[in-house]
Design goal:
Helix content is about 45%, strand content about 10%. By secondary structure, it is an alpha+beta fold.
Length: about 240
């Protein structure tokens, strides 16, 4: 993903443009506070993390307290309270990915990059994090860069990916577009499309294997019985 008109540098103070875009996000929703999640992504795009200033701005625009904003920002792991590198590399270490080599990949990258979990390399290029299930078990072990899939990884291929990122060489998702920077991806998550949603493949053969078998064998999903509304409140209670 490459965001349209991404900020050129981390804003030390939220710009008028960012304030305007935060208001634009809030105005998209019948209940303005429903826009809080994308607004926090926009703050991260502009400032590289969720800052106290960003929390105050979101609270002011939405008419809620900074404590309410902070509660959301600390609940979801995609929101970061310290600066993230140019690329966020997440290695799945849950269940199947771990069994298939995810733990080995994470250990190799930590050693290669000289960082621990949720730490950033000295050059500011890569933040490494072990993350929970990416819902991509059919391609385990899976790694993500700025939330784009990199399937069927090995310790060697993972090292090659981070070396390419640090060297400025292009990296393309195995089921998606060319990988952009973390802040550009955050801008897209804020709801400012980059026009590249359909770039690259999406579902691959492993994902679609069940569908192919069903079609070959003429299998169809069972028809759900029709539901009728109860004639009275008593019927609803009895049900």
């Amino acid at each position: 993903m490459t965001a349209t008109n991404p900020p050129e540098a981390v804003e030390t103070t939220l710009s008028e443009t960012t304030w305007s875009e935060l208001r634009e996000i809030a105005a998209r929703y019948p209940e303005a506070r429903s826009g809080l999640l994308p607004m926090l992504h926009l703050v991260q795009s502009a400032q590289g993390r969720v800052t106290p200033e960003g929390i105050e701005a979101c609270a002011e625009i939405l008419g809620i307290t900074p404590a309410e904003v902070n509660g959301v920002a600390t609940f979801y792991t995609m929101y970061k309270r310290k600066p993230v590198g140019e690329y966020h590399v997440g290695v799945c270490t849950t269940a199947l990915c771990a069994v298939m080599g995810g733990d080995e990949i994470l250990a190799r990258l930590q050693d290669h990059l000289g960082v621990g979990n949720d730490e950033t390399t000295a050059d500011g290029k890569v933040t490494l994090e072990h993350i929970e299930c990416n819902a991509a078990c059919d391609y385990a072990p899976v790694m993500m860069v700025n939330w784009e899939f990199l399937d069927n990884q090995t310790p060697d291929s993972a090292v090659q990916v981070v070396d390419d990122l640090r060297a400025g060489r292009p990296v393309t998702s195995t089921r998606g577009p060319r990988v952009c920077t973390w802040r550009e991806a955050e801008r897209v998550l804020a709801g400012f499309p980059d026009g590249r949603a359909d770039e690259g493949p999406s579902g691959g053969p492993a994902t679609l294997a069940g569908l192919a078998i069903a079609r070959e064998r003429g299998w169809t999903a069972p028809t759900a019985p029709e539901l009728t509304a109860p004639e009275s409140a008593q019927e609803a209670t009895d049900a």
